[in-house]
Each structure stands twice: as structure tokens, then as C-alpha cells.
């Protein structure tokens, strides 16, 4: 069993109302060895009116609470402290984002950080308007993947790159897109290679995120083809996370995911303590 979940959220995230203690108690019930909280820190999130939240938290309060939680569960469950950073490729934002995330890394003794692309062009693909308006599914996904690849090259503030094909969840249904079965990541092979090579060159991990299965896509983030290509290019660092926002979603489908990753040729997954990777055999 994969006994560490390195991507989960609590009530510190704008899209979760689950107290962190509930996530910890569920992890213990499931027989986990450890978890890492990675609550959302998305500076300058552009869709505040639509989402009802700014996806920010008080970082000092967060770190204090997580340290207290880590100490309270010592001996029963190892709790690591992390943050999920929202990376942005808009040129006017890169410097500010870099400075803010660097400050968090330097201020707090974090174990782990995820770099995720939720937004580009000052919008989130979650919203059909304005991102998908006037674009074919291929055009929209290409724009998103270019942003992800640019972020992999522009930022060094994170340990693992989160949910690579996040935008696939939100492609509007049409005659051109009947659902995720129409998704072939290798159409974008040049962009994907650029992205994966940047991660490998910088010593960043790739995340295997099981939320894709939870959302009914039929595959993890990233898709099997991307995971295979990562191995072919020599990638070794792989973190595993559920992206769970509720207790019932943590460690989601990890048993089948373990078998799946072994079938692709992965022998280890990676956890982090104080930003240092440690390999654990699958």
C-alpha cells in the first residue's frame, strides 16, 4: 500500500471546509504512515467574484496550526507541512509570484511544495467563459500546456509539479469533445517533452494525482502516456497525492494506482522532508 498522501487540503484552502484534524483522523483509520497538507496559496487569483474566494490563507496562522497538529499526532501519524503554489505565466506576474513564494520558503520550515498551474491569461479553465470561448478543445489545451511548460522553466520555488493535465477536466462538451476519452496527450508531444525535460533538468518531481480518477476522467493526472514518457526521458522523482478536499477523498484509489505505476515501470515513489526527496519502494 502507498502509505503517504502528499497532496491534500483542509479548511485553510478556499475550496475546502474540512478541519485538518478530520483529514488526519481519516488517514489513521486508513492505516497511513504519513500525510502532507498542501493548502492552496494562489496569489492574484483572477476569478474571485465567480469562486467566492481568493485562495489565500494567513501563512503565519497556517504554519503555527500545522506545527501544533504535527506535534499532537506524533507517534500515531507523521504530518508534513506543505503548500500548493499557484504558478502564473503572465509576464507581468512572474516576478511578483517568484518573490512571494520565495518569501514563504525562506520564512517557514516547510517539508514540501507543489507548483500547480490553475490559471493563465488571467482566468481559470474551470470557467467556460472566457477561457474556452472561441477556442477548439485542442487550441485551449495547447494554450494551457504551453503555460505549464513555461512555468516549469520559470519557477524554482516548488518540489513537485502538480496535476499536469488539470484543464482536461473542464473542456466543454461538443461534437469535437465528447469527453476525456477524446484526450490524446501525445498530440502535444513537443510541449510535453519540453515540460518534462525542464522538470528533470531542475531536479523537480512529477506528481501522480489521483483526482483525475475521482473526477471520472478514467486516468490520473498526468495521463498514462505522460508518465511513460517521463520514464523514457529518465525521470525518477514521482510524488503521489489524492488532492483530497474531504476525508473520503484522501488516499483515493491508491491501491490500484500502485499496481498501475508498477505496470508502467516505476519502482519507487518519493516523499519529502525539509524539501529533501526520499525514495520509497512501491
Provide an overview of this structure:
With 282 residues, the chain is α/β, with parallel strands linked by helices. It has one domain (4-281): Metal-dependent hydrolases (TIM Barrel). Helices cover 37% and strands 18% of the residues. It is built from 10 helices and 9 strands. It has helices at 20-29, 48-51, 59-72, 91-107, 128-131, 137-154, 189-202, 211-214, 224-232, 254-264, and strands spanning 4-8, 34-41, 78-86, 112-116, 160-161, 205-209, 238-241, 268-273, 276-281. The strands form 2 sheets. It has a 7-stranded parallel β-sheet, with helices on one face. Strand 1, helix 1 and strand 2 form a beta-alpha-beta unit. Helix 6 (137-154) packs parallel to helix 7. The N and C termini lie close together (8 Å). 45% of the residues are buried.
Shape descriptor reads globular
C-alpha Rg (nearest Å): 18 Å
Order of helices and strands: EHEHHEHEHHEHEHHEHEE
Sheet of most strands: 7 strands, parallel
Give the distance, in angstroms, between the N- and C-terminal Cα atoms.
Answer: 8 Å
Number of strands: 9
CATH topology: TIM Barrel
CATH architecture call: Alpha-Beta Barrel
Q: Which CATH class applies here?
A: Alpha Beta
What strand line-up does the widest sheet have? 1-2-3-4-5-6-7
List the total number of helices. Answer: 10
Helix content: 25-40%
Class inferred from helices and paired strands = alpha/beta
Mean pLDDT: 97
**Any low-confidence stretches, pLDDT <50, length ≥5?**
none
Number of spatially distinct domains: 1
Strand content: 15-25%
Looking at CATH, the homologous superfamily is Metal-dependent hydrolases
